[in-house]
Specification:
Elements: E1 4-8, H1 14-23, E2 28-30, E3 35-37, E4 42-44, H2 47-54, E5 59-60, H3 68-77, E6 81-85, H4 93-97, E7 103-107, E8 115-116, H5 119-125, E9 130-137, E10 147-154, H6 161-185, E11 200-201, H7 217-226, E12 233-237, E13 240-252, E14 259-263, E15 266-270, E16 275-283, E17 290-291, H8 292-295, E18 303-306
Parallel strand pairs: 1-2, 1-6, 2-5, 6-7, 8-11
Antiparallel strand pairs: 3-4, 7-9, 9-10, 12-13, 13-16, 14-15, 14-18, 15-16, 16-17
Helix pairs in contact: 1-6, 5-7
């Protein structure tokens, strides 16, 4: 019997874990440790841990793979095959070398495009027509291993990063199921990536959240969608930071860049290319996300300002 381990942490890894557990026995699930969340700083288990416990699987949550006790734990499990989805750790060479059938990652991009931590976000930011999931063998390079298979999905003008990632998580589960037999019997023959075509998708940062109205309307539209739910995007109006949580259409507008106008016709922000971007949902400090006109109500049922 092939001894399989699953390594993942967030909700996007759960569909693949469930698909794997429904097809084969899983000897171990590895995920990040429980973390404090919310104002009360209450410890919360990561989604993969919760799903693993529901499936009756043994859970391991090492803080670091450099610790000797982590290596001893891993080597004691005698794992043959590892499946990795958004685990959040760089796996050491000794661990990769210990696997007769390899470690295989479900990466949320069409490799070699968008290697790194935030591939879906960067695909939307760049205006890519499509993205997808790649099943690749993990090597020591950053998402540079050979690719066994991929599944493509178009990026629509309504896709936000979190919604698109939820679809890709299901695609990843299907891709894993389709190729699990070859992974388990050692007949998988992946194709090397073309390194010169690689692009990088670094981690998102808070300083990415400011919307620059000098940018074209389509670029602002993509930025709002790409940075949901974190770090989000915001404009500053009336000396108040206002988060932009949803966008709609784009129309021609003769006003100056940075003009925010709202009325019964909606809330519109003029961009640097002379077109206006519809703001559908906003959030004031300390308030929930609201329809844009409701969020702007403290400054009147209609009005105009510069951001």
């Amino acid at each position: 019997m092939v001894r399989i381990a699953f390594l993942g942490t967030p909700a996007v890894a759960v569909p693949a874990l469930r698909a794997l557990a429904s097809a084969e026995p899983v000897q171990a699930v590895f995920c990040n440790p429980d973390r404090p969340v919310g104002r009360g700083r209450v410890l919360e288990a990561p989604p993969v841990k919760q799903a693993g416990l529901d499936l009756g699987l043994p859970i391991h949550q090492p803080e670091r793979w450099k610790h000797p006790e982590t290596r001893a734990l891993w080597e004691g499990l005698c794992i043959d095959l590892a499946v990795v989805v958004a685990y959040g750790h760089l796996l050491p060479d000794w661990m990769l070398d210990s696997l007769p059938l390899g470690a295989w990652n479900l990466h949320f991009s069409l490799l070699p495009r968008w290697r790194g931590a935030a591939p879906v976000n960067h695909a939307i930011l760049a205006g890519d027509a499509e993205t997808g999931v790649s099943l690749m063998r993990i090597t020591s390079g950053l998402d540079a291993g050979p690719v066994l298979a991929a599944f493509a999905r178009p990026i629509t003008l309504t896709d936000t990063a979190d919604a698109l990632l939820a679809h890709l998580a299901e695609d990843a589960a299907a891709l894993l199921t389709a190729h699990l037999e070859t992974l388990g019997n050692g007949t998988a023959r992946p194709t090397p990536q073309v390194d010169r075509l690689a692009t990088l998708a670094p981690k998102l940062t808070r300083d990415m959240s400011a919307l620059d109205p000098a940018q074209p309307a389509e670029a602002l539209h993509r930025r709002v969608r790409a940075l949901q739910p974190w770090p989000g995007t915001e404009v500053r109006a009336f000396d108040t930071p206002i988060k932009v949580c949803g966008v709609g259409g784009i129309r021609t507008c003769g006003q100056t860049s940075g003009t925010l106008r709202w009325s019964k016709a909606g809330a519109w922000l003029t961009a640097g290319d002379g077109r206006a971007l519809e703001l559908t949902h906003l959030q004031r400090p300390g308030k929930p996300v609201q329809p844009a006109l409701q969020a702007l109500q403290p400054w009147g049922a209609e009005g105009v300002t510069q951001v």
